[in-house]
UniProtKB/TrEMBL annotation:
GO molecular function, one term: hydrolase activity
Listed InterPro entries: ACOT13, HotDog_dom_sf, PAAI_dom, Thioestr_dom
Keyword Hydrolase: yes
Similarity remark: Belongs to the thioesterase PaaI family.
Keyword Transport: no
Native organism: Amycolatopsis nalaikhensis
Record's keyword terms, sorted: Hydrolase
NCBIfam families listed in its UniProt record: unchar_dom_1
Domain Thioesterase: 78-155
Pfam families per record: 4HBT (PF03061)
Name of this chain's protein: PaaI family thioesterase
Amino acid sequence: MTDVAAQVRSKTITWEDPLPTARLGATMPGIEYMTAIAEGRVPAPPIAAHFGMRWVRIEHGEVEAVCEPDESLYNPIGMVHGGVAATMLDSVVGCAVHTTLPAGVGYSSVELKVNYLRAIHAGRGEIRATGRVVKEGSRIAFAEGEIRDVDGKLLATASGTCVLTPVR
């Protein structure tokens, strides 16, 4: 054991059942569905509650999401875990693709490559993830993303590929 005194903290996370929302989303064009989530007319996916992530801009082929990381997202060496950046980037890359899809078509990430450029720490304000489609397709779509801090410094980048599939 160490001499470091443990200071216990807690965090409560709540979310809504995602399946009715996903079924609704399958009936809507992707841009309308994502806009409804951003405007709070449709519940956000549960992963957003875990990170405190919210969508702030939705356009055809481009989305932005923000979150303010807290220490509950830290890794063992005292900085925000890289998986948080990867999850945000996967989300904005996929959701950017989703804005280009008609009702009844969904997507799944096939590949995501993340470059970590700077450490992310709690208490330094919101981080902003932007995703944009590079190439729309009928079976595969390509997109890229980035995360910046409140000062506009680039923290991480990503490129991703999504496969497009009918939603059942």
